[in-house]
Design brief:
Rossmann fold; DNA polymerase, domain 1; about 50% helix; elongated
Length: about 200
């Protein structure tokens, strides 16, 4: 079966991110020692999993993290610090533009409401996606089969007609088990090679 759609993960595929930036900013608003803050933030990031699955509201996440880490940040300051952690990857942005019009494009991300609104949505190529599936909206995170099923339903395509790209091998394996062509993202050069092997034609710039 020919490939009709290319589905992208967001973090470390379309955009790099560094949660350490948030922790560094939070340190300026915490009464904890640096060591205690680091340990507490590890607990907070575990809680982020519930937030990214839609089991916790944005306000609840903000309130709980501030309480655990003894933060004095306003909600607005927190949102800015928590979401200003992304750095788009120009080669992938160019690739998405190159594929637009030749294939249907999907974005499949484990993410939270605030990261989506202030980190993903503002990326310049976001409007090019034909279908978007977000973990906090479907209440399931990769590698849960339900999140992939949501994307396939939105694209109205069988798994065999889709290529899925992710930097986490476990998520790629889950996509393959459903019948997709799974590509483990490591470098842009390798990605282009793997897309060609999957039958995806990438036009020149």
């Amino acid at each position: 079966m020919s490939v009709d759609a290319v589905i992208f993960d967001f973090g470390r595929v379309i955009s790099d991110f560094d949660i350490g930036k948030f922790i560094e900013r939070a340190a300026h608003s915490s009464t904890l020692s640096p060591a205690a803050l680091k340990a507490t933030m590890a607990q907070s990031m575990q809680m982020a999993g519930r937030y990214e699955t839609g089991l916790m509201t944005s306000r609840e996440f903000y309130t709980n993290v501030c309480r655990l880490a003894s933060l004095t940040m306003s909600e607005q300051e927190f949102v800015r610090a928590y979401t200003d952690i992304f750095t788009p990857k120009p080669p992938t942005l160019s690739l998405v533009r190159q594929l637009k019009g030749r294939y249907r494009l999907g974005l499949l991300s484990n993410t939270s409401e605030w990261h989506f609104e202030f980190g993903i949505k503002p990326v310049v190529i976001f409007p090019l996606f034909d279908a978007v599936t977000l973990s906090f909206e479907v209440h399931a995170m990769k590698p849960d089969p339900r999140i992939y099923a949501d994307m396939l339903a939105k694209l109205a395509l069988p798994a065999e007609a889709c290529v899925y790209i992710d930097d986490v091998s476990e998520n790629v394996t889950a996509a393959r088990e459903l019948g997709m062509h799974g590509i483990h993202y490591t470098t842009h050069e390798r990605l282009i090679e793997d897309l060609a092997k999957a039958g995806v034609e990438v036009p020149p710039h």
